[in-house]
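Hi C.,

You asked whether I'd gotten around to modeling the 474-residue construct. I have! Everything is below, sequence then structure, no commentary in between.
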Amino acid sequence: MIGLLARREITSQEVTHSVLKRIDAVEDRIKAYVTVTRDEAAVMAAEADRKISSGQFSPLTGIPVAIKDNMCTRGIVTTCSSKILRNFVPPYESAVTSRLKESGYVLTGKTNLDEFAMGSSTENSGFHTTRNPWDTGRIPGGSSGGSAAAVAADECIAALGSDTGGSIRQPASLCGVVGLKPTYGRVSRYGLVAFASSLDQIGPITKNVRDSAILLNLIAGRDPRDSTSAPHPVPDFTAVLGREIKGLRVGIPKEYFIEGMDREVDAAVRAAIRQLETLGAIPVEVSLPHTGHAVATYYVLATSEASSNLARYDGVKYGIRTEGKDLLEMYVKSRSEGFGPEVKRRIMLGTYTLSSGYYDAYYKKAQQVRTLIMRDFEEAFKKADVIATPTSPTPAFRLGEKTEDPLQMYLADIFTISVNLAGVPGISIPCGFTSENLPIGLQLIGRHFDEETILRVSYAYEQSQEWSKRRPSL
C-alpha cells in the first residue's frame, strides 16, 4: 500500500474512506473501538495526500492506524475503557502518537481494552466487550483486544497496543496477527496512562512482520520526558528482513511445553520450530527454571504498582466526580462508581502487598524472584540467539468462560509474563489454526535491545508459510 500511495495510484483519502466503510460494516459485530475519529481521519488523510504530492512522506504517511485508548491524544477523549475517565480529553499528545503525527499517519480511532489494561480478554472494559473476528462468540484476548481485533477485521491497517504482561502478544496470537513487545525502555511511555510502570511497554500490532518493523522504526528512541526511556541506538529494523537465519540457535525451554496446554497449540508450535530448523536454524534445549513462579511474581508487582498509580484518580483533578457530604465520602463514591470490579480487585491486592507487615513477605520477595527470572534469560541466551515458545496455552476461549474464575484468567498469560518481568523483547506471529479455525501464535523472545533478531527470524518464518495471509470471513 505504501508503494501505491507513493506512486499516487491511490490516495490516502480513498484508503481512509475504505477503512471507515469497513468499520461501518463490521463494527457492530466486533466492537473494537471506543471512539471512531471520522472527522480527524478525513482531515489527516487530506493532509497526507498533500504531503505525498509534494514528495514529503514517510512509510506511514496516509496509512490508517488505530491507537489503544490508554495513550493520550490531544483533544480526543482518552478513557482507558474506564467510566472514571469517560470524559477525559488530554491537553497533550503522547510521545508515540506525536511521532506518528509527524510521520503523517491517519488516526481511525481509539480502541477498546480491559479497563486500565487490566485483563486478558477485553471483557473487563467499562463500556463493552470486543469480540474475536474469527469467531464472534469468543474473546479477542487482552488487554489490547480492541487493537488486535481491529487489525484482524481490517478496521485499520495497523494499530498500537501496550503490553504489561502479554497484552500485545496474547491478543495478537488469538486474533491471528503480529504483535511486538519491544525491550523495556525502547519506546517512550510518555502519555501512556500508567498501569504498572516497571512493566508497561508500547508496541505495534500489524498484519505482517514488515509492518511491525516499520512502526517500530517510527516510535522507538530516547525521549527525555520518560526517565525510563533508554539512550540506545535505534537501527533500521527493516534492514534485517530477508536475511537468512541459517546457523541461528533457537532455544526451546522445557518449562513452556507443559501438561494442560491445548494439544493443537502444542502441535502447531512444534511444527513451527521444525520449520525454523528447515530454514537453517539450530534448535537447542534451554531452561527457564523460575517460570513457574512468574504469574505469582507478576501479580504481586503489577498490582502493587497499580495501587500506587491509580491513587491519583480521586475525583478532584480529572475523571468523574461524585459528590459526598465530605471529602472522604467524595473519594469513596467517585472511586466506587468509576472503577470496575477487576480494577478494584487489583488495587486491593496491591494495597495489601505494600502494607506494613506484608511488604517484605510479598513485594520484596517478588522483586527478588524477578531478579532470578531475569538471570534465567541471561543464562538461556548464552546458548540461544532467540527463544521459541507458544504465545498462549490455548486458542481464544468463549465469552464468559473465565470471568467467574480470575485465577484461570490470570493463568492465560503464563507464557508471556516472564518477558515483561525480564524486560526483554518478544513477538507473536501466526503459526497455524485449530480444527475450529482459531489462530495459534508462536512467540519469539530476544535479548535486551535485540529486536532485530526476533524480527529477522519472524520474517523468515512468515515468508515460508501462508498463515499471515489468512483472513476471517465476516
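If it helps when you're writing up: The radius of gyration is 21 Å.

Thanks,
B.
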